[in-house]
Amino acid sequence: MLLLIFVYISILAFILTSLSVAIRFSKMPMHSRWELYPVPKEKGRSEYGGSYYEELKWYEKPREISLFGELKEMLKEMLFIKNLFVNQRQLWWLSYALHLGIYLLGLWTVMLLVGAVTEVAGMTIISDEGVTSHWWAGLVYYVTLFAGAMGAVLTALGSGGLLLRRVTMASMKKYATGQDYFNLLFIIIVLVTGLVVWACEPTFSYGREIMKGLLTFSPISADGPLTLHIILLGLLLIYIPKSKMSHYVAKYFTFHKVLWENEPNLPGSEIDQKIKEAAGIKSGKTWAAPHFQAGGPVSKDQ
């Protein structure tokens, strides 16, 4: 029963901490308003990098916003990591393998839940003779098998390859921090324990049993390797929103509130008020560079 409670806590912690990070980002002071074009929400103009401001007396004309354009561009980044592909193609292959693997493991988790609901409803996915003949049972089984196997392989390939690059490439060593190494090692360790469990039960029946336990509030039956894997996976879920890996939350604000926010700064507008508030904030931070220290003289090179 303790293992079941731990799983509930880790899932709840992941959700609540992710929401807390999102709320914290949403309440941060206004960004520097880079307004880097093309801005996808500029309807009819994003294709050539144009802007609403190019119109004569733009402030007197209605402004058309394309939410579809924003969504399309965000999906390119979320699903394919477009910017990394364009700017650092060599690094993209490993990074995308890691992210695609995580997406597939997310699908695997959903399919385990679907399988558990199916079995709670009375349909057997796998009998003593193998996969049952019903088409739904076969679909659930094979999609689960594909997503779990491919997700584990791609995530292992991506995380292992990225760790190796950070260890061996001098250019990456310069900006890699201890947390970067720890994050990748943590993912790899969880994957290794998961692969050990999978080798003992390749049909993922244990996953559906765990999901049924979560749905019915029943104790989870697990041997040593499975117990270790569940604990490590739960700790990883708790840790992710508190680490650099929380960029799955930050990316929304980076694009929508930094790169693409080009709302007109008109007198008395909401943007005008935010700018005035941001201008009054005094930073308590300082740079590590010797030529710039809080309260010190400003170098002529600045």
Keywords:
1% strand; Fumarate Reductase Cytochrome B subunit; disordered C terminus; 302 residues; 63% helix; 2 strands; two-stranded antiparallel sheet
Stated plainly, the CATH topology is called Fumarate Reductase Cytochrome B subunit
Unreliable parts: 296-302
Number of helices: 11
Strand content: under 5%
Spatial arrangement of strands, main beta sheet: 1-2
Task: Give the N-to-C terminal Cα separation.
Answer: 61 Å
What radius of gyration results from the CA coordinates?
25 Å
Assigned CATH class:
Mainly Alpha
- Give average pLDDT, whole number: 87
Describe the structure.
With 302 residues, the chain is mainly α. The protein has one domain (2-22, 48-244): Fumarate Reductase Cytochrome B subunit. 63% of the residues lie in helices and 1% in strands. It has eleven helices and two strands. The protein has helices at residues 2-26, 67-80, 82-87, 89-120, 135-168, 170-173, 178-200, 205-216, 224-239, 247-259, 270-279; strands spanning 126-127, 130-131. It has a two-stranded antiparallel sheet. The radius of gyration is 25 Å and the shape is globular. Mean pLDDT is 87; it is low at 296-302.
TL;DR?
By secondary structure, the chain is mainly α.
Lay out the secondary structure.
Elements: H1 2-26, H2 67-80, H3 82-87, H4 89-120, E1 126-127, E2 130-131, H5 135-168, H6 170-173, H7 178-200, H8 205-216, H9 224-239, H10 247-259, H11 270-279
